[in-house]
């Protein structure tokens, strides 16, 4: 009976984890503080580096850097 409890417990606990709200690149570009936090999280945790939010935050920070480069010239 105990062998059945472990997979059930793992299933229940994994289902309780909060899912992150998906954000697109434009949202991160409009919310720079949140973008910076997400980029730091992504750089510090390889497990989440390939998630859509990490990709979108990194894309947004790159896009803002390019736009800033053209503003100064």
Keywords:
73 residues, 75% helix, mainly alpha, 4 helices
Commentary on this structure:
The chain has 73 residues and is an all-alpha fold. The protein has a domain at 22-72. Helix content is 75%, strand content 0%. The protein has helices spanning 2-16, 25-30, 32-44, 52-72. The relative contact order is 0.13. The model is unreliable at 8-17 (pLDDT under 50).
Mean pLDDT: 83
Cα-based radius of gyration, to the nearest Å: 18 Å
Total E-strand runs: 0
**Unreliable runs:** 8-17
What is the terminal-to-terminal distance?
A: 71 Å
Question: What layout of secondary structure does this protein have?
Answer:
Blueprint: H1 2-16, H2 25-30, H3 32-44, H4 52-72
Could you give a quick summary of the protein structure above?
The chain is an all-alpha fold and 73 residues long. The chain has helices spanning 2-16, 25-30, 32-44, 52-72.
């Amino acid at each position: 009976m105990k062998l059945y409890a472990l997979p059930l417990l793992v299933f229940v606990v994994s289902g309780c984890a909060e899912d992150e709200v998906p954000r697109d690149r434009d949202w991160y570009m409009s919310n720079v503080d949140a973008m910076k936090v997400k980029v730091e999280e992504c750089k510090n945790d390889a497990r989440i580096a390939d998630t859509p939010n990490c990709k979108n935050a990194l894309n947004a920070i790159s896009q803002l850097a390019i736009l800033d480069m053209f503003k100064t010239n």
